[in-house]
Design brief:
Elements: E1 2-6, E2 9-21, E3 26-36, H1 45-59, E4 64-66, H2 74-82
Length: 101
């Protein structure tokens, strides 16, 4: 987890989880959460947190960073490509939901 601060206030964070790609025989990082307080958005904190995640991937010899976001997340769908992420549309993403919860 990396955090962003402004004037000694926590204003955002990015949370990453390690994964392993058996096809690439390398670590991947899953960017699971990215949050910046709405009062601090538009000031570059999101981009800096993403850059820190990319630095982590490089320093751990990982093959990349994965993330998912909703199709309706207009801000995220502009942010991630501007930070070098590409839509990976060669696979279908499936989810099983435990209905017992």
């Amino acid at each position: 987890m990396f955090v962003a601060e402004s004037d000694d206030k926590l204003v955002g964070f990015v949370q990453l989880y390690p994964l392993f790609s058996s096809t690439r025989m390398k670590r991947y990082w899953l960017l699971n959460d990215l949050f910046v307080n709405e009062n601090y958005r538009g000031n570059g904190f999101s981009k800096e947190l993403i850059e820190e995640a990319k630095r982590l991937a490089k320093s751990t010899d990982a093959c990349g960073v994965l993330l998912e976001t909703g199709k309706s997340n207009d801000i995220g769908n502009k942010l991630y490509p501007s930070c070098g992420f590409e839509i990976y549309d060669e696979v279908n993403f499936y989810e099983w939901t435990n209905k017992d919860l």
